[in-house]
Amino acid sequence: MRKKPEQPTLELYKLAVEMADRVSARRGTANQFYLSLETLILGAPIMAQYLGSNSVAHPELLTALSVAGVLVAIVWWLQLRSYRELNSAKFKVINEIEDHHFEVKVFRQEWLELKQDRVPRWRPRYLLCASSRPCQSSFALRGMHRRYTGFTPF
Predict the structure, then answer these.
(1) pTM higher than 0.70, yes or no?
(2) Which of 13, 38, 78, 93 has the fewest CB atoms within 10 Å, i.e. the most exposed one?
(3) Widest CA span of the chain, in angstroms?
(4) Of residues 18 and 150, which shows the higher confidence score?
(5) Structure confidence at residue 85 (pLDDT)
(6) Which residues fall within 8 angstroms of residue 146, CB to CB, at 6 or more apart?
(7) Is the dihedral of CA 141, 142, 146, 149 positive or negative?
């Protein structure tokens, strides 16, 4: 049995867990911001047309909004990747402290549970869906739409 962790180690552990939680909260806030921004970029032309403009939006404006949407999506992805890397490093430190100073390894055990493959349990559900009438109807509609218009919208 291991001895009780020293107070400074325990305080560092608490600080590391709190910092990891704050990074996760910041990532959630960033997701809300970028989702709102993308919704605004996509919805602005639609709302303008709905609220009274009878003409179709200028192609230059639509092109600019499309480019802006793609750029925002790239920045969003880069920021999410940065948060993921930062949290990964923080949890490596947390796991290291747990390995050397605690008998119970809460975060390591949680990660092991998350890494287990759950797909085999879900496969029968997907096969059931693929053989059901609503799924078959959806596939039939896609084929009909492609035949008459040349592309599949969904």
Answers:
(1) no
(2) 78
(3) 77
(4) 18
(5) 94
(6) 152
(7) positive
